[in-house]
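Last lecture ended with a question: if I hand you only a sequence, what can you say about the shape of the protein? Today we answer it with a concrete record. The protein is DUF2442 domain-containing protein. Below, first the input exactly as provided, then the predicted structure, then a couple of comments.
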Amino acid sequence: MIPRIKKIEPRSDYTLYVLFDDGRQVLYDVKDDIRTLPTYRSLQTEHGLFQNFQLDESRTCVFWSDEIDLASDIIYEYGTLC
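The predicted structure:
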């Protein structure tokens, strides 16, 4: 089953606090993606972009643009438990 996001909050240090429907709470560090994926660099260089994410209707994908998205299963698996 694909984990669904219940709540998500961006933090000032390029991390996301994410609460899933099953109660799991994680912090996902987007800085690693910014360093390794060229399309993610604009999250750091474009003022305010990181805070302006959207969640798709299925609540299984966070996205900032057509080129920058993050699947909920990646956040679920690689996020640090709170």
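Comments.
1. The chain is about 20% helix and 35% strand.
2. The helical segments are 31-36, 42-45, 72-78.
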